[in-house]
Design goal:
The complex is a heterodimer of chains A (350) and B (344). Chain A has 350 residues and is an all-alpha fold. Chain A is 72% helix and 0% strand. The chains are: A mainly alpha (350), B alpha/beta (344).
């Protein structure tokens, strides 16, 4: 697919335009639908009403306004942020580790966040006495700590600090942290439902507070991955070859891992462990467009946001007014969708 | 109103017969209703109600008519369990069983209880886990009777294999289930009359609580919260059935498409449903309160939040099926009565 067609490594404007359109359509759709029927006209009126210098009778009750602006809107925005971040982080991980199975949780970010969240749920039950909710802080710290541990472990290996060494260190750290988390969860079984609820991921109770908490991290981390995405293409040729091109693979890898982890930790701390997004979105983009990270990263950011918003629509509408954990939805619709893409495309280029 | 209480009335009559059989132990079998049962009845229920009770259901507890009651055979959910003599070293791996044991005066026969049995305070709490129970750990207390509520890994079979009597009392689905279990606990420990009395007072207390409600409580809707991710319990659950005599409508019912009973609700659905009452059963676990609920995005627009009609329940009571359910019922009834006051 890439041979003899060097142009496919360039970012085509219609790929960007098309993906942005998909994202826009999905976002508008997500604001329109929900367990509570709000007519599109009412929603448009309410949005216009919020514009500066315009005031009109929206026809919506205070309660409907609250549902639209304090529940549905932040939820859609958060889904975009989480989906974009996880997809970009997944693409970055796949690039720096030259491993198609890499996802944002590869180096222990997921296991660390899970352990942090479990510790917070078990030992620091949220009460009004806390100034800030300890759960996101602990999940964030756990994710960073997990990856730092994996890096430290990988760094101390004397022979060749290669990508593979780091992956193996990550596997060991993830297994260890998961074991600790399971141990704690089984011992304190009265908090089991809460722990599982967090691990399966949910945007159900998200508000603007969560959005403003993660947005700065997501913006910074996405910018770094976007700006540096050419380096991922260079790393793809191998550490030694990249070195001859003037790139220091270890340093590049560290920078990408730091920012991908920071962003992942931030979104995971408010959304829980939503799996599968970081793997299937970049791969789908690769299959549909190009294998070059110059294309994969920006398109993954756009389509990753769209994918998670879509998954969240299903999570809240499929069995409305009940909810499905969004992590379950991403796997249930993501896996078959990915299989279809895999079958209909001409094959992965790598 | 009367018809709703039919299940309770049956149980009252059941108590009455049990009481009678205990009083004249050698005469009548326990499940034969007699005329004296009406006299033995301690509650203020009317004659009309007691007539419906003569069709008393079968009791699952059978007591051998020996001098001290033992040996007894119990038709436990895990099969017939024979207990030769009054147990002295009971191990309870079920917070509910622990509460019942102490409530019927069998507390001094209890050697150990699991780590989550935090009521009453003088229960001999150990490290034993109710979630991942271990045959060896339980056996190390040398028990002569073990109560379990959950058998995830063949603990019952393991204990029976080493000759320890086990009664598995799983989660009660109705109050009648719970009463049946309490009576079995009484029979198994030699506290038949105390268990019957506990059932009777509980029944009577609940009757009087619900009787204090006006008919208008039918128009009350409620949301019952189990966790901060908005897990709820429908009318089909134990807690839903417990509150059913109040006649309130549960907003989680339409959401329970799979019949599981514990749907996770959408925040926007709850806000739109605008229940009259919010019952929080996640106060201890998760720190939910009127304040935290009011701070959730969009929740301040709800009538129940604005008017403070948010009841902070004790999670422990709400998740067990012990005698303290009366406290929970009374809390909810009091909240409904406050509603009626503010409305009128």
């Amino acid at each position: 697919m890439n041979t003899g067609r060097p142009a496919s490594t360039r970012l085509r404007w219609w790929w960007v335009g098309g993906s942005a359109l998909v994202l826009a359509v999905v976002v508008v759709g997500a604001v329109m639908v929900g367990p509570i029927a709000l007519s599109p006209a009412d929603i448009v009126r309410s949005v216009v009403d919020r514009l500066p210098f315009i005031g009109l009778d929206t026809g919506l009750s205070d309660r409907s306004e609250a549902i639209l602006w304090e529940i549905r809107m932040p939820r859609v925005v958060l889904a975009v942020l989480v989906g974009s971040m996880l997809s970009a982080a997944g693409a970055a991980y796949q690039g720096v580790f030259r491993n198609p199975l890499a996802d944002p949780y590869l180096l222990g970010a997921g296991a660390g966040a899970g352990l942090g969240a479990t510790v917070a749920i078990v030992y620091a039950p949220a009460t009004s006495g806390w100034i800030i909710d300890p759960l996101p802080v602990a999940a964030f710290g756990g994710a960073i700590g997990g990856v730092a541990l994996a890096y430290a472990l990988g760094y101390t290996v004397r022979r060749g600090r290669t990508a593979v060494t780091l992956i193996l260190a990550g596997v060991a750290v993830a297994a260890f942290l998961t074991a600790l988390q399971t141990f704690l969860q089984q011992r304190e079984s009265d908090t089991l439902r809460e722990v599982y609820g967090w691990i399966l991921g949910s945007l159900n109770t998200a508000g603007w507070g969560e959005v403003s908490l993660v947005a700065p991290y997501v913006v910074v981390c996405l910018s770094v991955v976007l700006v540096g995405r050419r380096l991922l293409d260079i790393l793809a040729v191998g550490d030694t070859e990249a070195g001859t091109l003037g790139v220091r693979p270890g340093r590049v890898r560290l920078i990408f891992v730091v920012f991908a982890t920071l962003g992942t930790a931030a979104v995971v701390s408010v959304s829980g462990l939503i799996g599968f997004v970081g793997i299937i979105v970049p791969h789908t983009v690769r299959l549909l467009t190009s294998a070059s990270y110059r294309v994969v990263v920006p398109i993954s950011i756009l389509l990753g946001g769209a994918f998670l918003v879509l998954a969240d629509i299903i999570a809240r509408v499929a069995v409305a007014p009940a909810e499905i954990p969004i992590g379950v939805v991403t796997a249930i619709i993501g896996a078959p969708f990915f299989a279809v893409v895999l079958r209909t495309s001409k094959g992965i280029t790598s | 109103m009367i018809r709703r209480f039919a299940p309770f009335v049956v149980v009252v009559a059941l108590f009455a017969t049990a009481c009678n059989s205990d009083g004249s132990r050698d005469s009548a079998p326990p499940d034969t209703p007699t005329t004296t049962s009406v006299e033995a009845e301690p509650t203020t229920t009317s004659a009309r109600e007691t007539t419906t009770a003569t069709s008393a259901r079968e009791t699952t507890t059978t007591t051998e008519p020996a001098e001290d009651g033992f040996p007894v055979t119990i038709n436990a959910p895990n099969g017939r369990v024979t207990i030769e003599r009054p147990p002295e070293r009971i191990v309870s791996i079920s917070p509910t069983s622990t509460e019942v044991l102490f409530a019927i005066g069998a507390g001094d026969q209890v050697a150990a209880v699991d780590s989550m049995s935090d009521f009453p305070e003088n229960a001999p709490v150990t490290e034993l886990s109710a979630f991942t129970p271990s045959v060896e750990a339980i056996a190390s207390f040398d028990p002569d009777l073990v109560f379990l509520s959950f058998d995830p890994s063949d603990i019952v079979a393991g204990l029976e294999a080493i000759g320890i009597a086990v009664i598995l009392h799983g989660t009660a689905l109705t109050m009648d289930d719970a009463y049946g279990q309490w009576e079995q606990v009484g029979t198994a420990t030699g506290h038949v009359s105390e268990a019957a009395a506990l059932v009777a007072t509980t029944t009577a207390d609940m009757l009087s609580a619900f009787d204090s409600l006006p008919e208008t409580s039918d128009s009350v809707t409620y949301y019952y919260e189990l966790g901060p991710t908005l897990y709820s319990a429908t009318s089909a659950t134990f807690i839903g059935g417990l509150l059913a005599p109040a006649g309130m409508e549960n907003i989680a019912d339409p959401a329970d498409t799979d019949g599981f009973g514990y749907p996770e609700l959408s925040a926007e659905y709850i806000i739109d449903a605008d229940p009259t009452l919010i019952l929080l059963a996640d106060t201890k676990c998760c720190g939910a309160s009127l304040d935290t609920v009011a701070q959730r995005p969009g929740w301040a627009s709800m009538t129940a939040v604005a008017n403070g009609n948010v009841v902070e329940l004790d999670d422990d009571i709400a998740s067990r099926w012990g005698p303290r359910v009366v406290d929970l019922v009374e809390d909810v009834v009091a909240a409904i009565l406050r509603l009626e006051l503010t409305n009128s």
